Amino acid sequence: ACNTAHQVVEAWLSKVREQEGQVKAVRDALLAEVKNWTQVNANSQDWRAISRDLHQFAQRWRNAGHLSEKLYTQYQGHWKAAIKAAHTGLEQAQKRSVDMRHALIEEAKQLAAQLPLRVDAVKALQTRWQAEAQALALDRKTEQKLWEAFRDPIDQAFARKDQAREKAQTEISAHDRSVLAAVADLDAANTSADAQQIRAAIAALQSAVQNRPVADPIVAPAATASSAALNL
Question: Is 42 in a helix, a strand, or coil?
Answer without folding.
Answer: coil
